[in-house]
User: Fold this.
Amino acid sequence: MVTLIVILGLLQDVPAPPPQPPPVRGDRFQLMVPQGWKTLNDGGFVLLQHSSGASLLVQRITRTVSISDYARRQAERIMIPLGFAKLGEPQYFKEKQDESVQYEILGNRLAEPYRILYRVFRRDSGYFESIYEAPVDRFELLLTEAQGIASSVQTIIAAPPRRTRR
Assistant:
């Protein structure tokens, strides 16, 4: 009986784990967003912003024939509005069935130097792209966290629309 009381006492002193934030949903995908990031848009795409000024965009893209060609075109498109933009060499990653191509972009946005990490990746049966952007001096602070958010993408199988009988 004393043992039972001691065990119950220990269980009452253990604090409950902090509640996990609900996943943010995009177009047939969801991802986990840690504290400190604010969701600016969810739905077709997910746009997150951190209080430090960094931002992360994750969206589903249509299936592409060549992931490397698509990544190159999109990275060049992202460079266009930047001043003095420079595109880094592509980095390729392959893990089991997942594959990705990543580009680093340097440029100025309103005279402030920015660094952008653009990545196209295949997860499950879907293709996604993520764009992490931050001022150069604060880029490394949230890089690992932003990559973790983007890699938490899980495809959601949408139920087919209901058919009504006439």
Summary: The longest helix spans residues 67-79.
